Amino acid sequence: NAGVMQNPRHLVRRRGQEARLRCSPMKGHSHVYWYRQLPEEGLKFMVYLQKENIIDESGMPKERFSAEFPKEGPSILRIQQVVRGDSAAYFCASSPGTGGVSAFFGQGTRLTVV
Amino acid sequence: SQQGEEDPQALSIQEGENATMNCSYKTSINNLQWYRQNSGRGLVHLILIRSNEREKHSGRLRVTLDTSKKSSSLLITASRAADTASYFCATDLNSGNTPLVFGKGTRLSVIA
Question: How far apart are CA A22 and CA A92, in angstroms?
Answer without folding.
Answer: 9
